[in-house]
Amino acid sequence: MKKIVLTGGPNGGKTTALSIIKESFNSSVELVKEAATMIYAGGFPRTDNSPEHVYCVQRIIYFLTNELEGLGEKTANKDAKLLICDRGSVDGAVYWPGGMDDFFKKMNTTREAQLARYDYVIHLSPPLKSSFYKQQDVLRTESYEESFKVDERILQVWDGHPNRLIIAKEADYLEKAKIIKDFIGNLLK
Question: CB–CB of 29/82 below 8 Å?
Fold first, then answer.
């Protein structure tokens, strides 16, 4: 089973893409939910952005991401040919106060080892029109302007992956959906 990660800046359309992928390809794909959403929606406090708090939550997200992906691989529907992950194990490096190199060192791994876990990377950038940006809430704390800075850091942390599809911020959700459906459809052929 091939492993694909959907990543990108806040409000890039990852959740919408996952719904479209599941609806379009049914049992041919197995989805892995985003660890950060599970943690924050479950009540993990997000009001304190101190380094200690961020270190703690990013360690939890990293290890939960690995566990969820492992579970997805072991328990996937027998017809599933693709494991589609909502974010990946390298995304936490973007938020790590000590920087990318320190993140991988503290996680006892390397960036190269984590990039190698994924066969394909689909990067969805935030929309250019601010009217399409979902306002801040407990799950999305970045402002519209900050979302582009986060997106740039995510592009950097995934740089060098040999099979990366970057869907530009100029694309609207319908365009993004078509690009993703075509990409996944070709992988399933």
Answer: yes
SS3 161: coil
Residue 93 to residues 44, 72, 180, Cα–Cα distance (Å) = 19, 23, 25
Q: Please tell me the predicted confidence (pLDDT) of residue 138.
A: 47
* pTM for the full predicted model: 0.91
Are 117 and 3 within 8 A, CB to CB?
A: yes
What pLDDT, in 10s, does the model give residues 20-71? 999 999 999 999 999 998 998 888 877 777 899 999 999 999 999 999 999 9
Tokens of 97: 């106060």
Nearest Cα to Cα of residue 133 among 122, 144, 120: 144
Distance CA 142, CA 182 (A): 30
